[in-house]
Description:
single chain; Rossmann fold; 6-stranded mixed beta sheet; 10% strand
Amino acid sequence: MRKILVFLKDYKKESVLGPLFKLLEASFELIVPLVMASIIDVGVASSDRSYIMKMCMVLVMLAVIGLVCAITAQYFAAKAAVGCAAGLRHALFEHIGTLSFTEMDTVGTSTLITRMTSDVNQVQNGVNLVLRLFLRSPFIVFGSMIMAFTIDVKAALVFVVTIPLLSVVVFGIMLISIPLYRKVQSALDTVLGITRENLTGSRVIRAFNQEEDETEKFQEKNEVLTRIQLYVGKISALMNPLTYILINAGIVVLVWVGAIRVESGVITQGEVVALVSYMSQILVELVKLANLIININKSIACGNRIGTILALEPSIRDGAGVDVRSESMTAAAGRDTGAAQDTAPAVEFSHVGLTYAGAGEEALTDIDFTAMRGETIGIIGGTGSGKSSVVNLIPRFYEATSGAVRVNGRDVREYTLEELREKTGVVLQKAVLFAGTIRENMRWGNPDATDAEIYEALDLAQAREFVDTKEGGLDFKIGQGGKNLSGGQRQRLTIARALVKKPQILILDDSASALDFATDAKLRSAIAGIKRQMTVFIVSQRAASIRHADQILVLDDGMIVGRGTHETLLASCGVYQEIYESQFQKTGEG
């Protein structure tokens, strides 16, 4: 929670002025019972109407001043709370952006969304309440007791007994409810996770007629959340009745003691009314304090949950960086000596192994190969063989657990992530587009790309034909997630987006699965015809997509079981033969 309070440092003035004005309001509120006592003992007792009117004006003035102080306090408290939440949300979003795929897989998307939304809102609400009421309520409680002692010590002893009893009730319920609110938030995470799955997979659910099963699953988890909330609610609900019982019992005793003291001539009727007013103020403030504590508990629980995310260290750290001038000089020297390019391989895997977090076995074992500049590398294998895992190690989406991955002769861990990913263009399995125009999506790879460069990339990706038919062309609005485009159109646009970047290394991770064979062939031919020396990795389950690659890697159970050209593998690799024959035997192609 301390990490969260750091975000109040820019609002020190508001954090001081908010409680200060609330204390001023409370001070004026403590004067009201004394004015009322004066009206009864002086004005009413002597039937002095002018005095009563004068004192009533004093009450109105106290009310106006108190209102101004309350509004001012609310303004400063709200400004500090909203500013703190804005800074926290920004820091959380920025921190999540630094997390690697490993942390994202471990924590889960729905959990991160909950932290960014409802948890931050709870913290904002808690900060606001603390700045307004955390000092005010105790000030009123103890101020009322002190004022009671100034009226009559013996009658004020009722306050001395009542306040500790109330404190036991309030803090006892608080201690019980804190861990329960953590369980509520955890159950809420589960419900949100199911909700997100159902919303994103609604078409699949309907296709398999699983609406009733998913509804039952949701109801089951929702009932667990409801039961926990009801249990916490029942405990929290004890707060008001128990405090009311104690306060009203205190008022009864206070009136009884006050009557005796009035009969003895020690205090006046107005002072008894003032004592009862102070007791009533304590009642109101303790109820506020009880509700405040409940909300603070929620905020602390949410703040701690946010703190766990902020404390989550990314498993992949930036390297020291590469001297770009040194790379340029090396390349220039290579040209001067007649070399076509730098002699270092574009990508090199040296006995690489990968074990995912929480996994018992290696996903990749002893992956060893080299890819030179300008080469096209095909990667093929069965489902779960580790194809995507291999290419995900190049831009360091995951960190190799053994061996080394090198780009341009340097270990990828020596690059900063920005430098490394500037060299690579990645098209992932799932085609993800963002709400906005086609032009805006294309400029993700290169913010300064001209329309001519965008159209060039669209031509290479075989996307120009449908972009020109869209209303507005490059200004066509893409819906969230590209829902207003077909699967093939989304894939071609994501490929074009990577090509706009003009990367040294292009990774196509099964990114043409929705394309027909003719379009896929045109795409591969267009990429192969690019004049610049770009190393291309094509991950596919189609043998046709990678058969013309300079080098094909065949993976099985996380290991390379075959490497070479299409013809070589057909003659020597049983796994490749099986994949090829399963796809071409019926058509008679060979």
